[in-house]
Amino acid sequence: xxxxxxxxxxxxxxxxxxxxxxxxxxxxxxxxxxxxxxxxxxxxxxxxxxxxxxxxxxxxxxxxxxxxxxxxxxxxxxx
Length: 79
Prior knowledge:
The protein has helices at residues 20-31, 45-78. By secondary structure, the chain is mainly α.
C-alpha cells in the first residue's frame, strides 16, 4: 500500500511562517501598542522605546561578534 507524502509549501514569497519566539516578542505590539514609533505623540512612546532598546541590543551583539571574530583570527594566526 502506497502512502502519500505530505504536501510541501514552496511559495514563501507570498507568506512565511513566523517563529513562535518572534510571535511572542511581537504580541504586545500586535495586541495593544498601535502607536507609530516615529510620530512622537503619547501613543508612540512605548514603541519608540522598544525599538531603541532592540537597536541598542543588536549593536551590542554586533560589537561582541566583531570581538569574537577578531580573537578567533588572532588565535588562528598564533596557533
